[in-house]
TrEMBL record:
This is Lamin-L(III)-like isoform X2. Residues 314-326 have a biased composition (Basic residues). Residues 456-468 have a biased composition (Acidic residues). Residues 335-454 form the LTD domain.
Length: 487
């Protein structure tokens, strides 16, 4: 009878180091898991920073491309104006040459007319002299006076005609020369102005060509930088994915090991509790035998029973705490979302992300809407309101949507999306409200998200109380193995 009792009382002692080792391994695995999660968060932050740098570089590249396109258009327009100026200068020079040639032609014509009149005058004198010589013999005296009068009249007539021709030729030639001089002076002025404009245009073209070359070199440098950043980003993404896969595998293995250790620990606790209950039953039986035989109770058996009862109470406390934590998680999951939406215009707030990553707007009209000066106001419970102001030139196209992301959303925004760079997130909470306000202060649209508990089910174990030592003894008597009873 006494030998089995000693064996049963000594058997639970080696279980304490096993439980301590299991707790140490479990704490070590939890610390490793926390370190891995922190490293994953750091890698996510680095990836978000790299993506933000890439988006900034792409925006700068698009801006430089637009400026380069505008400069090319200006160079083309300046080349066209330069060609027009050259053509105009060439035409003016041709006109000047034509006028000089015309002036020379008029001078030659005037000389020819003068010589022709002199020849006619000589011929007339010769004819008159021949006539005078023919009639001189018979009628010299008779016609001398008449001939002299006629000659004088003819001379006067010819002199008057020649003088008239000279005056007319001089007036015509003077007028033409004056016109030619005025035209030449005007053409010289035009040529000087065109030459100055040509020189200024050439200077501007040289300046623009140097700027274009500079922008092209900057564009090439930026493109190479973008390629380097893209390659670095791809490498970081691949490295992050590999590390994430490795960390996920390690986390899965750690979770499996922790689950296995937890199951082993629970099995050990169940075995320990069963052994404690058996020890308590044997203790009661021994006390009953000692009382029946009137023997003094041993102090070691009493201390062992007390230790077993305290360990049973700690186990029941742990089970109670686990049950309450499980119910708390179930209550947090049993929340439902209620949304309130209102809109008095063509633009509405379509969606608010529950995790605070983005807010989405939509234009329901058939016309584009400029959002210059408009504001999105965010309210979260008792937290101070925060306002997001749209860019000055932003326009929401007809029938289109726009998404405003938080700075730490961890996604690549589309070409038509916006990023709230001064705010990492739109925020989370049980009561979130976003209001769209125009530049006149009018509240055009509003959306609210409220989290309320669902209808709670009746919980049967809320009145779970600590089991006393007598109740533990009663339970042990009910679960006692009949093969261990002493007759």
């Amino acid at each position: 009878m006494h030998l089995p009792k000693a064996a049963i009382l000594v058997s639970p002692r080696p279980l304490a180091p096993v439980r301590e080792n299991a707790g140490l391994r479990n704490s070590k695995k939890e610390s490793d898991l926390n370190v891995a999660q922190a490293r994953v968060r750091d890698l996510d932050a680095q990836l978000n920073a790299k993506e933000a740098d890439l988006a900034t570089a792409l925006n700068e590249n698009r801006t430089l491309e637009n400026e380069l396109r505008e400069l090319k258009d200006q160079v083309l327009s300046l080349n066209l104006s330069l060609e027009d100026t050259k053509k105009h200068l060439h035409s003016e020079m041709l006109r000047r040459v034509d006028l000089e040639n015309h002036m020379k032609t008029l001078q030659e014509e005037m000389t020819f007319q003068k010589r022709l009149h002199e020849d006619e005058l000589k011929e007339t004198k010769r004819v008159h002299e021949s006539r005078i010589a023919e009639v001189e013999s018979g009628r010299q005296r008779e016609f001398e006076s008449k001939l002299s009068d006629a000659l004088q009249g003819l001379r006067k007539q010819h002199e008057e005609q020649i003088q008239g021709y000279k005056e007319e030729m001089e007036r015509t030639f003077g007028a033409k020369v004056e016109n030619a001089q005025l035209t030449a002076a005007r053409n010289c002025e035009f040529a000087n102005v065109a030459r100055e404009e040509l020189m200024e245009t050439q200077k501007r073209v040289d300046t623009l060509i140097s700027q274009v070359n500079q922008y092209q070199s900057q564009n090439v440098a930026l493109e190479s930088k973008i390629k380097e950043l893209q390659n670095l980003l791809d490498y970081d993404r691949d490295l992050h994915r590999r590390r994430m896969a490795e960390k996920e595998e390690e986390m899965a293995q750690a979770q499996k090991q922790a689950q296995a250790q937890l199951e082993e620990y629970e099995q050990l606790l169940d075995v320990k509790l069963a052994l404690d209950l058996e020890i308590n039953a044997y203790r009661k039986m021994l006390e009953g035998e000692e009382q029946r035989l009137k023997l003094s109770p041993s102090p070691s058996s009493h201390s062992t029973a007390t230790q077993a009862a305290s360990q049973g109470r700690r186990y029941l406390h742990g089970k109670k705490r686990k049950i309450k934590e499980t119910r708390k998680r179930e209550c947090s999951a049993a929340l439902k979302t209620i949304q309130h939406v209102s809109a008095t215009g063509n633009i509405s707030i379509e969606e608010i992300d529950a995790d605070g990553k983005f807010v989405r707007l939509k234009n329901h009209s058939n016309e584009d809407q400029s959002l210059h000066g408009w504001v999105l106001r965010r309210r979260i419970g008792s937290v101070a309101d925060v306002n997001y102001k749209f860019p000055s030139r932003f326009t929401l196209q007809a029938g289109q949507e726009v998404t405003i992301w938080g700075a730490a959303a961890g996604v690549s925004p589309g070409p038509s999306d916006l990023v709230w760079r001064s705010q990492k997130s739109w925020g989370t909470g049980d009561n979130i409200g976003v209001t769209l306000i125009t530049d006149d202060g009018e509240e055009l649209a509003e959306r609210k998200i409220m989290l309320v508990p669902r209808e709670e089910e009746s919980e049967q174990d809320d009145d779970y109380e600590e089991i006393t030592g007598s109740e533990a003894e009663f339970g042990s008597q009910q679960n006692e193995d009949p093969s261990c009873s002493v007759m």
